[in-house]
Amino acid sequence: MKFTENLTDTSYTLLKHILKDMQRVAVAYSGGVDSTLLLHAASEALGDAVIAITALSATTPRQEYRDAVAFAQNAGIRHIAVETHELSIPEFIQNPPDRCYICKKHRYVALITEAYQQGYAIIADGENLDDANDYRPGSRAARELGVYSPLRDVGFTKKHIRRISEMLGLHTWNKPALACLASRIPFHSPITSEKLMQIDAAETFLRGLGLSGQIRVRHFGDTARIEVDVADIVQMIGADIRNRTVRFFKEHGFTHVLLDMEGYQMGKLNPLSSRNKDEYVKKPDDCSATICG
Questions:
Q1: What is the arithmetic mean of pLDDT over 234-261?
Q2: What is the pLDDT of residues 195-242, one digit of tens each?
Q3: Residue pLDDT, tens place only, 36-80
């Protein structure tokens, strides 16, 4: 489908009509590109009858939470953070391939409970049409619990969302996705608070270098595998940044620091069945039950 500004205007108007019909909406708000557009639209459609609720846990990138707080404050939208405790769930910390389902079900129960206590019977998330093409067991949890996805229902792809966000002047229009920190840990490798803090610190450091694209630090025990956009690889291997990166990572507990020369690819640790089997194979050594480029 050819993307046009007119289509954008029509789709955004439809989105606001759908939200207005809901009368009162709690938005599951992460601070990312999708949920920011949804929250903005809900605020335009419903005014004070919208509330933003953010799940806050050890798996949440600190920068993402700070962004969420700042946007809600600047927009004058009531914002509540709900602490969730995924690391208290034995099944989650064992890190099975459906860990996102376990996490999301726990999180959405907490968010729905808070929304009901605040007088909101409808909760909506920022899932979009493109999410159906990725490995997202967490989406199943949202559907089971009755969470609405207006962006997906209207037919918004990520491209639509970024374009509309740019037209509206939202600062998130070109923001790289951060995603849950647990997604950096290979399946079946236990999830711990120490690993999550290492990952968050390492990715925060790399963002501070001025890299413009996606950043992931995959955690393989004492080895960190860095993924950045292909355009940023040359910058990463420059002597100054390379030396600073190695020093910082070793100060934060990593013994080996690797740069993935293939560049960032979404869902690189997803199960083989959800990826291109012709391009990726499972390595038997350090990538147990994961896909490595």
A1: 96
A2: 999 999 999 999 999 887 899 999 999 999 999 999 999 999 999 999
A3: 999 999 999 999 999 999 999 999 999 999 999 999 999 999 999
DSSP 3-state of 269: coil
Q: What is the dihedral of CA 273, 226, 131, 141, to 10 degrees?
A: 80
Segments making up each domain of the chain, as ranges: 5-174, 181-274
The pLDDT assigned to 230 comes to 94
CA atoms in the 13 A half-sphere facing the CB of 67 = 19
Which CATH entry fits the domain spanning 181-274: 3.30.519, 3.90.550, 3.30.70, 1.10.600? 3.30.70
Structure tokens at 164: 């509309």
Residue 127 near residue 42, CB atoms below 8 Å: no
Dist. CA 123–CA 53, nearest whole Å: 9
Q: Which CATH number describes the domain made up of 5-174?
A: 3.40.50.620
Amino acid at 243: N
What is 170-181 written as a DSSP string?
A: -GGGGPPP---G
- 18 vs 22: CA distance, rounded Å: 7
Count of CB atoms situated within 10 Å of the CB of 226: 20
State the Cα–Cα distance between residues 260 and 269, nearest whole angstrom.
13
pLDDT score, position 131: 79
